[in-house]
Amino acid sequence: MSQQRALNFRQMFISNILWLAGSLALAFLVWMTAVAQRDPIEELRLPGRVPIQFQVDEAMLMTNASIESAAIQARGQRSALSLLTSDDITLSADLRGLGPGTHAITLNSDIRRERIIVDTVPRQVMITLELLESRLVPVAIETRGVLPGAYEQGDPQVETFEVQVSGAASQVERITAATLIIDLDEARTTIDTVAALTPVDAEGGVVADVTLEPSTIAVILPIRPRPDVREVSVQPNLVGVDEMVEGYLLTQLDYEPRSVLVSGSATLLERLPQTFFTEPIDLRDRTADFEATIPIELPSPDLIVLAGGLITVRIGISTQTASQQFDNIPVEVIGLGDELTAQLSPSTVSLLITGPQPVVAGLRTDEIRVILDVNRLLPGTYPLLPQPALAQGVPSGITISVLPASIDVQIVAAETTPVPSATPGR
Length: 426
Fold this sequence. Notes:
By secondary structure, the protein is mainly β. The chain is 13% helix and 52% strand. It has five helices and 33 strands. Strand 22 and strand 23 (290-297) form a beta hairpin.
């Protein structure tokens, strides 16, 4: 009897346990459904791209990669995705242990947020690896330009004659030298500088994507005067500048070359003056610009001028500007109709004439006219502008101002005087 009772109790206990487990499972399912409805699972593509971190052995060099960043496709609950940024994701490509050649590498992603799964677009990157090589190459000095003829260069002195070049083996093996360039144009003193080095191949072409150590070096290139040649300044010998035609003055002086090279004995070169002059250039009768080719006057017949001894001189001559006022110049009326008269206020004006001094100084009052044109004007009062004129015309560079600039003109009909008729019988 007791055994039967125990069996019934066990069956009831198991039944209750199963009923409780089923209730809990149903409640969990209902809860999950409610949560999913409030915070559903979604997919999101992040804006922008995430850079790829490449992990390479020290003995290898990555020379090409099909991509350097990838897009991210994420899946997870809406609440988690809303907080996701590109900074939460790290992408890497593990190249360690791979040899030279081209490899397809699957990208690894590491995400710092829970309940999110990410995928990359694309999922693989194509990588080209080469052996990393280093070797020493010689330093070569390349000069550009030409030294002035009176100077010569000595042997260059460099900080080091070899530098180390590192990079992909295919690039490093092309390099024959590391060159530096020195510009000789207009150099008259020793060049002491730090110059950048450039890796080049046998044809002189620049080899890219390699590293030079050091990348710059100090270089000294002695520049000294030649013992048999001297550079001397040249200056035009102008005479009569203070005796030029009245009203004209020197406004421009240009010449070339500014210096010449002369050759002679060392003793003679040591005694040379700092400047040579040309033969005299007389300005006393000059009234216009001109150009002349003039020989240099050498202080000794034993000197030889290299590359010719003529100087081209360009002289600019302008007139001085002067002003003169002419007063009480009568105004002449032209174009007045028949049986009309004109009354002017004022009837005389002043003229201020400005221009080249020789022209202005030569003007006389009887050569100056002021004209007022009233052609086709009917009776009435008009403000008109008088027009100045010179007997020989207005030369270039002359300006004339009329004072006052406007004249009041009153045009009236002329009064007619009746002619008395003849008396009969006379």
